[in-house]
Amino acid sequence: MRTTRRSFVKTAVAGAAAPVLGPRFLDSLERRLEAYQAIPPAAAATEEAFWREVRKAFPPHPDYINLENGYSSPQPMPTWDAFQRHESTVNNGLSFYMRRRRAQDYASVKKQLAALAGCPPEEIAITRNTTESLGTIIHGIDLEPGDEAVMCDQDYGTMLEQFRQQSRRRGLRCVEIQVPLHPRDDQELVDTYARAITGRTKLLLLSHMINITGQILPVRKIADMAHARGVSVIVDAAHSFAQVVFDVPGLDGDYLGASLHKWLCTPLGAGLLHVKRDRIRTVWPLLGETSVPADDIRKFERLGTQPVWTMMAIADAIRFHNLVGGARKEARLRYLQQYWTSRARGIPRVYLNTPEGDRACAIANVGIEGLRPGVIAETLLDKYRIFTVAIDTAPVKGVRVTPHLYTTTAELDALVKAISEMARA
Ligand SMILES: Cc1ncc(COP(=O)(O)O)c(C=O)c1O
Hints:
44% of the residues lie in helices and 13% in strands. It is an alpha/beta fold. The structure holds pyridoxal-5'-phosphate.
């Protein structure tokens, strides 16, 4: 019987109520994965038995193939389970927890997050998402009318909007450049940004991983060029953090924001703000904090009462991430992307908006000549039960496809078959 779109989406949502696992689930997963610990990351990418174990840690799979993991990630069950336990712990003694325990937990989570980011805890604050992290910077930096900020037409809309707001409010000039979809080399990208810098340029926004195509920009090289011209660099690491392995200080951005609910797989509403130590003083906290010195990162932490169980669960998400292994995760995600893109590239009328090789990881974007992105995405969902998202912007036309650690190669075969049928029709 053919399931209608409405009925299968309903089933999928209803079926999403996964059973709560006992706290021992992670220990047992840890034991099962121990057998694979000696496998180097590159080899682990194709070790299907390992990934079958990892897949078991994610919620039961809906009645469609989810290739839209770029919006956010489901929490693996051990994290979700811990999250619920944290909520219950706090609820059982709310004021007591907030007054007597929260600060300790916050410090401990921050320490673990800093270790993952490769930076001192004194340079990071926990936020709710990248929007909040980078908004703190974009709205907290002193700007004069006529100052310029450079960004690109593939940066995330919310960041562009925050800059436009500063344009209205402070007279900032936003300089929006175009970034090639298939750059020849890093130098082409460095030169593209360099050409936009003038004597009035104060800030440069850089997406470490462009969300609509998955392209990874050579942030360090562009930042070196910008710094040599006295320009500060804001890095949008919403997608790169915990998807690809890097040390935050190694990128050398002055300011960086990331969303932990994407690839670190925390509950929704967890983000990271990194500010280079000597830059902390240059940013005003949005909500006001004068009780700590101006060069103390804690000035960004007075954010009011929060659902603290989300913050607590960051530690559980880090444990799961480390169990899978950052390098193994990156290798697997890149393997899955290349598995389907290498098959799709040769199909007549099909084009990829994502560069090959190490310039992308999990995310890729595909188009079919003569078909609007919205039509491709709707047909994939209605006819093939494959969920993606249409991207219909001036520079990028296609559907974004984002597998996750739980994606199987059989699911990607189904995608390639669907694309090839649609391109033939
Ligand atoms: C590149 C990029 N930056 C920022 C964001 C905003 O993330 P959040 O909604 O978690 O703040 C996104 C969200 O998809 C993104 O892709």
